[in-house]
Amino acid sequence: MKRNLIFIGIILLISIVVYGIFQYNKPHRDIASEKSSYDLSADDLYKEFEQDVDKASMQYADKVITFAGTISNVEQNQNGGYNILLKGEKGVINCEVDAAPDLDKKKLSANSHVKIKGLCVGFDDLLQELQFKKCHIVQ
C-alpha cells in the first residue's frame, strides 16, 4: 500500500513538471494573423465600455478587435514600440504597438485616421481609458 502511494506521488509530480514545461514553452499569440472577433469604430467601442464596463469587459476582454479612429498622440515607449492614443467624443483608447521595422511613424501623426487591430486588455478606471496591447496597424 505504501509503495503504491509513493508510485502515484511520483507519477503526479512528473505530470505536474511536464505540464509546467509545456506551459512555459507555449508559443505567444500572433495577433497580426488572428482573425478579429469584432470590427468597430473607436467611438462605438468606448461608448460600450462607458455604458456598462462589466458587460463590455465580458464581451471584449482578451479578444482581438479591429477598430478605427483618429490619432490624438503618438509616443515611443521604453521597448522601442509606440503608444498610440485614439481620441473619441468622450474618451481615449490607448494602443500599445510593438516595435516593427516596417512601422512608419511619420504616417502616424496627430489628427490622422488609422485602423488598428489589437488585443483588448480592458478599461482602466483610474485613467479613464480603454487599453489594448500587441496592436498592429491595419491601414
Automatic annotation (TrEMBL):
InterPro entries reported in the protein's UniProt record: Protein_unknown_function_OB
One family name in Pfam for this protein: tRNA_anti-like
Record's protein name: tRNA_anti-like
